[in-house]
Amino acid sequence: PVVARHALALPAVVVTAVGGPVVVGPLGSIPAGASVTFRRSGSNITVSGAINGTVPTAIKLSYPNASVRVATPGYTYRYGTLTMRLDTTGLRTIVGDLSMQHYLYGLGEMSSSWPMEAIKAQATASRTFAQKRRDLRTTADFDLYGSVLHQAYTGTKFEDTRWRAAVDSTINRVVTYNGALIEALYSASSGGHTENSEIVWVS
User: Fold this and answer.
1) CB burial of residue 130 (10 Å; 0-12, 13-18, 19+)
2) CA 24 → CA 28, 120, 160, distances in Å?
3) Residue 126 to residue 124: CA distance in whole angstroms
4) Interatomic CA distance for residues 33 and 83, integer angstroms
5) Distance between CA atoms of 107 and 41, rounded to whole angstroms?
6) pTM, 2 dp
7) Burial of 5 (0-12, 13-18, 19+ CB in 10 A)
8) CA nearest to 183, candidates 136, 121, 141, 118
9) Could you list the pLDDT tens digit for every one of the 203 residues in the chain?
10) CA distance 147 to 108
């Protein structure tokens, strides 16, 4: 599975259940349409709103028949699970238990209105980048940042039939060189020209 985390830790995280109940660890379920707030309180996490309680260190939310909306950064997640974990400055949110396909569905790196072959190339590059980062993971509890630090994981915001079709039609396809995954770096905009690779990456 793939695990993505938001780049910033927050003092409080507000989540809303969408389309069905969201299970909050041992504390119970958030009814559809209701919200709860998670806050750091010393070495614990307090939960208030539709349900209330206190848990140590971390708590996992699951939503097999629903989605969960996180107020900041404002994304809704349909796949995987959402974990709140203590950080040195507050709480960090981690979307985990994602299959590679489900992770790719949630990327917001290219407009799906572009030509299909271009979208398929983006899906292949994104899969290659994510798989290489996942394979390099050591002691961290996540594989990739869900931001421009790695790849913009935006949940359902940009997921549509064309992007899903590009991801599905390239399933398991990655780019390799001499049998190893390449460093599949890409940029949002280059002004129509990029520097030669041998100048940027000097071995």
Assistant:
1) buried
2) 6, 36, 28
3) 5
4) 20
5) 32
6) 0.92
7) buried
8) 136
9) 788 887 678 999 999 999 999 999 999 999 999 999 999 999 999 999 999 999 999 999 999 999 999 999 899 999 999 999 999 889 999 999 999 999 999 999 999 999 999 999 999 999 999 999 999 887 788 999 999 889 999 999 999 999 999 999 999 999 999 999 999 999 877 788 888 888 887 76
10) 10
HSE (CB half, 13 Å, CA atoms) of 169?
13
State yes or no: cis peptide before 73, omega within 30 of 0: yes
Sign of the Cα pseudo-torsion (155, 6, 33, 23, in order): positive
Count of other CB atoms within 10 angstroms of residue 158: 16
